[in-house]
Amino acid sequence: MWLSSWLAMLPLAAQVLAGSGEKSARTDENGIRRIQLRTHTLAPPYLDSDMQSRWWDFGGNTIIRADQYIRLTSDRPSQEGWVFSRLPLTATNWEIEIEFKVQGNGNLHGDGFAMWLTKQRAQPGTVFGHVDKFEGIGIFFDTYKNNRPGTVFPYVMAMVGDGQKPYDKANDGKDNEFMGCSARGIRGASIPTKAKLTYFQDKSLKLELMYKQEDQWVVCFETTDPPTIPSVSYLGFSAETGELSDNHDIISVHTNNLYDTKKKTDYTDTGKGSPKAGRAKRKSKKSQKSKGSWSWFLFKIVMIFVVAGGVYVGYTAWRAQRQRKSHRF
């Protein structure tokens, strides 16, 4: 019994050791390296074996269908639902790609859903199912036009909240808008609908949408003067329905930490920007990387010995138990 229990743990130990590396990392043609953040990623079946999620909380009228979607609201009046990360997103540069679906049976529909990066988490409220006067940034996928002449709906817009200013719901957030765009075909599209938000601290913020044609991204907005997003921000999604309704589904969420591998060496601090100082800085980084590699290698060796020791102890106990049983007879 002891031996079988320890042997069963070997694949799990191997998975932990392998999963701790950067196998999910990849670098594109522009030199941007992406490393997946599992803590902020959602994909079917969404829940663990005990029907819970290690990294996310769900609430309101949210329904989870493990093989298809996380439904924030069903196509029924007066619903609200949300899903929020348990840990804050602390990466300096990141990319969040979501696949979603908004559809329903009625000719009239509403109200929409939102993506959040805010200090507040899991707090229901009146802004697409989330609390008003938030601090951070909200991306609103608004499908119902209240009072905004000259604007084509559905409309996607970003609002930067300071914790004090309320959302102007009566006018579809016109006075709150940071940037936005019309996206007429985003509801009920025949292809997978997606949004991708990319952020480089103090450098750029860009929102891209996919709804016209599969694998074709359309830039909704982009700026080289991005807002300051709180260093401790939780990633979340919420939706609401009023008298009019829709199904608001989150299909998947993929979050990556971004690194610019082509970034030039910064010759600062020592040597007044001299090449010698730069070489010293690179040498120091190389030494730190080497030390980190050795530390990881030693950690693996220690873990292997721990697992092997556990197997040996379990086998010894099992063998002694068998011998005691044989002496009885």
From TrEMBL:
Residues 34-258 form the L-type lectin-like domain. The chain crosses the membrane at residues 294-318. Residues 1-18 form the signal peptide. It is found in: Membrane. Residues 264-287 are annotated as: Disordered. Its main location: membrane. The lineage of its organism: Eukaryota, Fungi, Dikarya, Ascomycota, Pezizomycotina. GO terms for cellular component: COPII-coated ER to Golgi transport vesicle; endoplasmic reticulum membrane; endoplasmic reticulum-Golgi intermediate compartment; Golgi membrane. GO terms for biological process: endoplasmic reticulum to Golgi vesicle-mediated transport. InterPro entries: ConA-like_dom_sf, Intracellular_Lectin-GPT, Lectin_leg. Residues 278-287 have a biased composition (Basic residues). Keywords: Membrane, Signal, Transmembrane, Transmembrane helix. Gene3D superfamilies: 2.60.120.200. This is Lectin family integral membrane protein-like protein.
